[in-house]
Amino acid sequence: MAKKNVNEMSFLDHLEELRWHLIRCVVAVIIAATVAFLLKGFIFEVLIFGPSKPDFLTYDILCKASQLLGFESFCNTEFDFEVQSRTMAGQFSAHIWTSITFGFITAFPYIIYELWKFISPAMHANERKYSRGFIVVSSLLFFIGVLFGYYIICPLSINFLGTYSVADRVHNDFDLNSYIGLIRASVLASGLIFELPIIIYFLTKVGIVTPEILKTYRKYALVVVLILAAIITPPDVASQVIVAIPIIILYQISIYISKIVLRNQKRREKENS
To answer: Where does the sequence pass through the membrane (predicted)?
Structure first.
């Protein structure tokens, strides 16, 4: 049976098409999560608990950078805390959900591919031509964000929270799910935040956002960025500045992307007129 043209498909046909795309995405995540589940030693010992080790790459770089600036707030990496599991199924549950998180991160390019397959039939031929790099660019931005979250936000958070104490008699014993939740939230939040240029691209395509709007609300966006940086990082000014800088850069890049999209739209309108 021949596949229906997108213009001939009813609302229920679109829902059925979307359902199969979502099923394939879930299957891809499950397959990647299964591989991550089997690599338990590498996932936990090397990746999950990597930022809690004094010899983690980021600490050495931040320590040297802070010394050049005349302070040593990032040089204390002697973590005196334990990670414990206080429930019967705590470790198994952490293993399952960590595997699913890694499955989603690993399968992200395929998820974007399925999303692209769903929306591309509704686009014009020229739009599909100019948007062929969507999968590569969005995946690249997501992975850069994930790496930023893992190598910058996670060490900053662990360095601050792992050494913070209100009294000498209080010892830090963190719950396993709390520790992993910090890693997961930092990595996924950064990955999604780095998708800002892609989001602006599509909002500009549908006419919701323009460069003028982005410029007008830039000062408000700066406040939002600082608030966001304060939420996903510990209450340390240096950490918040480190996180806020790339987000501000992404916002500025988004303005240029919005300009390019509008310029290309106007050029195509002239060519068709």
So the answer is: 21-49, 94-113, 134-158, 178-204, 216-235, 241-262
